[in-house]
Amino acid sequence: MHISIFSNSAADIALIARSLPAHDCHGVQQRVDLRRAHPQLLIVDVASAGAHLADLLQMAWTPAIPVLLLAADTPSELAALAALPAAPADEHLVDSEFKPLRRHAVAARVKLLLQRAYPGHEETQVLQFGDHVFESPAHVVTHAGIQVTLTQKEFALAVLLFSNLGRPLSRAYLQESVWGPEDENALPTRTIDTHVSRVRNKLDLKPEKGFRLTTVYGYGYQLEQLEQLERLAAPAAKK
Fold it and tell me: Which UniProt keywords apply (predicted)?
């Protein structure tokens, strides 16, 4: 699904995008950009919308698409929510989530809104990285004709690693992206290491298969595609 996020907060936009890896999420800051985006679901930060909140909702409801409102628990923003008109087509097309945002709560709200707005919609979403095809919500990865089923956390971790191929990712970033900041104190020390090991083994991310998933000492992990590294090294070797 194509989802537009009307917000001035780059951190919130990034968190929402990580919460919805199976969807195409884009941040917008101008109403004119929203008109061009033609989203299937709109997420609006109440503070960012300001006096234009009602106008944004009218745009979203012509024709009607579901809307998720993000608001802080303050008198001004609560008053803004209370003053909003009801959705013209269906009152179930609008929902709200309070800050600070929690990844799992955002994902649950969006899933519910999409189910209400598009009851006949097939939930399956496909992401492709080279020859690896990721399918959710089944959490299936297909490569070289072989299908592997991952757990929800393993799938989210694998998508994150493939999305950042060749880049080192810190343990803190992996934890926040896959488990969420709300789990910081409850997450066992070895949980990330165990999940990385499972993803490496299940997807066969080994040098003989063209990939290297390694530990970056004192920092985190990095997934590299060896064919890309060899191509980059070839010109240097000729000099």
Answer: DNA-binding, Phosphoprotein, Two-component regulatory system
